[in-house]
Structure formats: C-alpha cells, structure tokens
Amino acid sequence: MTSLSDTGEFIAKKYEPKGPVVLDCQVNNIYYGDFRAVRDSHIPIEKNKVTGFIGPSGCGKSTVLRSMNRMNDLIDSFRFDGSIQYHSNDIYGKKIDPVVVRRYIGMVFQLPNPFSMSIYDNVAFGLRLNGYKGDEEEMVVKALKRAAIWDDVKDKLKNSGLSLSGGQQQRLCIARAIATEPDVLLMDEPCSALDPIATRQVEELMVELKEHYSVALVTHNMQQATRVADVTAFLGVDISKGGRTGYLVEMDDTHKIFEDPQQKLTQQYIRGEFS
Amino acid sequence: MSEIIQSSAPVIQYPSLEKNSLDIREFKNIFLTIMVWGIAIMASIPLFSVISMLIIEGGARIDFAALTEIPPAGFEMGGGFGNAIIGTLVMVGIASLISIPFGIMAALHLAILDPNSKVATVSRFLAKVLTGFPSILAGIFVYGVIVITTGTYSAWAGGVALAVLMLPTVTLAAEEAMKQVPQRMKDAAFGMGCTRTQVIMKVVLPTGLPGILTGVILAVAGAAGESAPLLFTALFSNYYMAELAEPTASLSILIYNFSGMPFDNQIELAWSASLVLVVLVLLFNILARLVGRSKFKE
Ligand SMILES: Nc1ncnc2c1ncn2[C@@H]1O[C@H](COP(=O)(O)OP(=O)(O)OP(=O)(O)O)[C@@H](O)[C@H]1O
Ligand SMILES: [Mg+2]
C-alpha cells in the first residue's frame, strides 16, 4: 500500500487523479539552506477542482504551495528538488521564466497585502501589468463582485486599499488575484482573517471559481476542507527522528480522507488527537 | 442563594478610583507637565523671534525692485537681488538634478537590491558620516576638482558642491522610506508576475514616495541656505547670469555680504533676501507635498 524510500522513510501511496491534471507536483526535497523542509511528496493538482492541503503547523503546506508558482525563488536559501509539470512544461525547467509562471499561477496570501493605492487600482494592477486590452473597468467590477466585496466598496473605489478592514482587504486581494483570470489559483489560508460570513462567501467563490480554474487551498479549518475541497492532501511532520521534515501522508478524495482515512496519522489529525 | 450574596456584599471593598491631587504620582504628573510646557515655550521663543524679525524687517523692503534689480554698490540707494534669486534657484536646481537621481538609485541599492553586501554597508556608513560633514569642506573639494581644472568659478561648481551636501541626506531618507515598504506588499507584486524592476517602479517607489520627498525637501532646504560651499565655487556676481560657466550670485552669499556692510540700504536688502529665501524653501516644501500627496483618500 505504501512504500519506503531508500533511507527507509515513509512514502505515501500514490494518489491516482481521476481527471486531467493541471499541475503535477512531484517534490523530492525542498530545502531552506541545510534545513530539509519537505520530502517525497507527489501532489497532483487536478483541473477544475479544489485541492485542499491540511496538516499541522510547520509541516510545509505553505512551502509546497509557494513552490507551485516559484514564489519561494525569492528566498535565497530555498532549493527545490523535483518537478512541477504545468501543461507540457516543468516550471522548474532551465528555460522557464518564473515571472511568467506567476502570471498564470496566481496567489492569495495568508495575510492580506493590498498595495498602497486605490481599491480600483489594486484590482486593475494585474490587468495593466499584462497589458490587458479589453474593458478594464468591466473586469475590475466583475472581479470585485466575484470576490464578494463589491457591495462593501462600490461607493469608494478611489479610496486606499489599506483603508479597508482586514477581512475586506483579503477579499480585495482575492479580487486582485482573479481579475487576470489565472489558470491556477493558490490560496494560503485565505480565510484566516475573515469572519464567518465573509468566509462563507469566499468558500462559495472557490466552488464557483473551479468551474473555470483550478484551486489549491491551504487551510487549518477542517470544515472548510470538507466544504470546498474535492481532493485533500494531508501533510505530516516527522519529529521522531529529530528533524522537522514535512511529507505527504495521504491524499485522496476529501470524503475518503475524512470518513475513511487509511493512515493512522491522518485519523489522529482529523479526530483532533494531536495539533 | 440571595441570602448569601446579600450577607457577603458589604465585605467587598471597592478601590477608590477618584483623582487624588495629594497623591505623589499626581504631583509628579502636574510638575512634569508644567516643566515640559515651559521648556517647549522657551525653545520656541528664538524660533518665533527670528520669524517675526524676518517678516517685519524683511517685509519692509520687499517690492518689485528688490525682487528684480541687481545689487546696489556702496552708497547707491535702491537695487535688489533678482540675480541672486535666479542664481540660488539655478544652483539648487543643478544640485537636485544630480543628487536626487543618484541618491534614489543609491538608496535602491542599499534598501532593495543588495542591502547586506560589503559595498552597501560601507556606503551606508560613509553616507552617515557625510551628513555630518562640515559644508565648507564640500566647497573646498569642489574648488579643487572643478574650479581649478576649469579655471573659473561657476554655477556648475556651486551646484555640484550643493549636490555633494544633498546626496547623503537624500540617500539615507530614501533608503529608510523604501525599507518601510512591507515585504508582504512586494510579495504581492511578485506574486502577480512583476519583474524586480516592475516591483520597484510600481510598488516600492510609489509607496515610499512620501518618505523620499521628505528627504528631498530637507536636502533642498538645507542646500538653499548654504553659503560656505558656494564661497569657493560660485563666488558671487553683481549681474544676472548669462551662462553657467561664470561666477554666480546666490541669496545666501548676498545675505552674508550685505549684512556685514555699514550701509542701511544693504542691510535692509539682506533682511529682505532672508525672507525671500525662507519663502522659497517653504514654497518648495508645499509644492513637493502637493505633488507627493496620494491621489486617493487614505
Ligand atoms: N523562509 C524560510 N527560511 C527558512 N525556513 C523556513 C522558511 N519558511 C518556512 N521555513 C520552515 O519550513 C517549515 C515549513 O514551513 P511552512 O511555512 O511551509 O509551514 P506551514 O505548514 O505552512 O505552517 P502553518 O500552518 O503554520 O502556516 C517550517 O519548519 C519553517 O520553519
Ligand atoms: Mg503556512
């Protein structure tokens, strides 16, 4: 069922995707300097699905997610060993420009980070960056509506994005990320600063988004994973051998992970038996 | 139940929260407040006396002639300092054209491109040293480098000397402003698919602009009032400048020259020139703030 690596470490059973895969992420090792943050994890992101990442704090969820659009390249000590197939390219291939990768694989961060410019300009930022030729205003309004923030900001589009509340800022950031209609949207705990109502709206948004895009979602909220994720990857962290290296423990359809997990670690985590 | 609560109620002693002016803390508080106000008022006396003197003494002689005519000689009456206003504007302009782009580029290197490198550490240290540099040395340096080699005092030399003084102020202030731009904002820009240049042009510089402008204003205000570095570089001239490669008048040198003269006319003009200098700096300050004000409401 599962196998062991050369060094005798646990390797999760391969998840067999049922539909087309948009990002086929094969991590052998991810290092920060000498620190091995994540090892041996094969996590395919399927097209038009929400793939959830759950796991204890520090297991490398953000690290894997940020590897998927080469955001981690900005960290000097970061080193990625493996491959991530996007259409017919390995995004870690020699000829690949990470800047272009990020235009197709968008990202919403854990903490809201609007630019210090008007709400409208925040959302139009990506469109202008990509030299969008169509009706900019229409795209901005559409993105704001889809991110469930239109009603909050429709009368003050010229105000600074920083003047909004934390939850509004996060929805603004989501609007900014989807305005350019990226192929894949990576979301790192996007709801951690939101109230239950806004969380609900963003969750509905994710479900809606997957009709056209593919979403990878890191969450600490189990209910959220069951509500929106079609497939769930559980990452664990092995502290028994002294290290703190994270790895994929189990990946499967969300209902399978939550109702009938195959691994003991997954069971314990889902039942809340360890943090 | 209610019995127990009633019987225990009188036992609770609530602390008094009322103000007690006999309390030693309250006394200290009042004493320190009076001290701080007193010292603040004392400190602002010189400032207000200078400003009121400037307005009274300098305002008396401000008229069209003073602003446009050339300086009077000896016992002559009338005259003005139009050439010195132009000279100061031109030399501060030259200095700004040199020091602002260089200062901002140096700050980019210090704050964003390579903050921890040896070059950055050394140049940051040197910039800090240079901010405390006696301004007359900047004049002597430029005298040696430009005046002697070109063989003439000039507006160029004056501008360069002022640029030497402005550069560290602009650099350090701009570096500080750019460092204040949160990493999260830069991450967001990179995440949208910006190149490093685009992150700098579209996010770091606009976000840091108010801080950068403050540094520029400080530097310009300082440079406009400098006289020592101009003594060796631009010298002075009694006529309107015809070209940049000739000795050039400036307000600060005119004030220095005229205020020591035994003629009332010149002394009055020195006061007026001082007022004009202050107003010029103030105008620039306001202008820079208008330009730098964000186009949206915070
Ligand atoms: N920039 C970095 N430099 C060095 N080590 C890092 C860096 N970022 C993360 N790490 C380390 O990598 C490991 C995984 O971190 P990561 O942020 O991916 O965890 P996470 O699963 O997202 O946790 P959380 O749920 O708390 O967000 C941690 O041990 C962390 O200390
Ligand atoms: Mg994280």
Automatic annotation (TrEMBL), chain A:
It comes from Neptunomonas antarctica. Residues 22-270 form the ABC transporter domain. This is Phosphate ABC transporter ATP-binding protein, PhoT family. GO terms for molecular function: ATP binding; ATP hydrolysis activity; phosphate transmembrane transporter activity. SMART domains: AAA. Keywords: ATP-binding, Nucleotide-binding, Phosphate transport, Transport. GO terms for cellular component: membrane. It comes from the Bacteria. SUPFAM superfamilies: P-loop containing nucleoside triphosphate hydrolases (SSF52540). One of its GO terms (biological process) is phosphate ion transmembrane transport. PANTHER family: ABC TRANSPORTER I FAMILY MEMBER 17 (PTHR43423:SF1).
From TrEMBL, chain B:
The keyword Cell membrane applies. Keywords: Cell membrane, Membrane, Phosphate transport, Transmembrane, Transmembrane helix, Transport. It is found in: Cell inner membrane; Cell membrane. One of its GO terms (biological process) is phosphate ion transmembrane transport. It is a multi-pass membrane protein. It holds the Pfam family BPD_transp_1. Signal peptide: none annotated. GO terms for molecular function: phosphate transmembrane transporter activity. The chain crosses the membrane at residues 30-56, 84-113, 125-149, 155-178, 199-224, 269-288. Residues 85-288 form the ABC transmembrane type-1 domain. Belongs to the binding-protein-dependent transport system permease family. CysTW subfamily. This is Phosphate transport system permease protein PstA. It comes from Neptunomonas antarctica.
